[in-house]
Amino acid sequence: MSEKDMRDVYTETLIEMAETNENICVMEADLMTATGTKPFKEKFPMRTFNVGVAEANLVGIASGLSAGGKIPFAATFGCFAARRTFDQFFISANYAQQNVKLVGTDPGVSAAFNGGTHMPFEDTGLMRCIPNLVIFEPSDTVSLKKLIKQAADHKGSTYMRLQRKGKNSLYKESDKIVLGKGNVLKEGSDVTIIASGYVMVPEALEAAELLGKEGIKAAVIDMHTIKPLDKKLILEYAKKTGALVVCENHQKACGLFAAVSEMLAEELPTPVQAVAVEDKFGQVGTLEYLQEVYGLTASNIVEKTKKVLERKQIRVGVQNG
Amino acid sequence: MSNIDLKELKEKAKEIRIKTIDSIGFLGVGHIGGAMSIIELLTILYYKKMKIDPINPKMADRDKLVLSKGHAGPALYCTLADKGFFPVKWLHTLNQGGTKLPSHCDMNMTPGIDMTTGSLGQGLSSAIGLALSMRLDNIDRNVFAIIGDGESQEGQNWEAAMAASQFKLNNLIAFTDYNKMQIDGYTKDIMPIDDLEAKWKAFGWNTYRINGHDFSALDNTIDSARQSFDKPIMIILDTIKGKGCSFAEGKLNNHNMPFTYEEAKEAIKILEETNV
Ligand SMILES: Cc1ncc(C[n+]2csc(CCOP(=O)(O)OP(=O)(O)O)c2C)c(N)n1
Ligand SMILES: [Mg+2]
Question: What pLDDT, in 10s, does the model give residues A197-207?
Answer without folding.
Answer: 999 999 999 99
